[in-house]
Design a protein that fits this description.
- The protein has 91 residues and is mostly helical.
- The protein is built from four helices and no strands.
- The longest helix has 26 residues.
Amino acid sequence: MKEQLLNLLAPVIKLALEQVLKPLLQSLMEREPEHGAVALATLYPVVDAELEPLSERSGTDLDDAAVSAVKSVIESVAGEFKVPLANVDED
């Protein structure tokens, strides 16, 4: 029952992360493009190749939503600022 209630929060967690993380990363890219690009390029492989498979094995929607939000925000900001991202897991 407790896990089901937590899973209901997944869309809220995803939306909250997107609304906080995206402006933060956009601001970093505008202020310090080189540092921002390094941050995006460094974080993305960890999220894509390590956290995403881990969250898929957990069986809960909450961590899936959090990882999905972080990954989509990084991809969105990287695309907006033309930052190449490594596809280390080739998905």
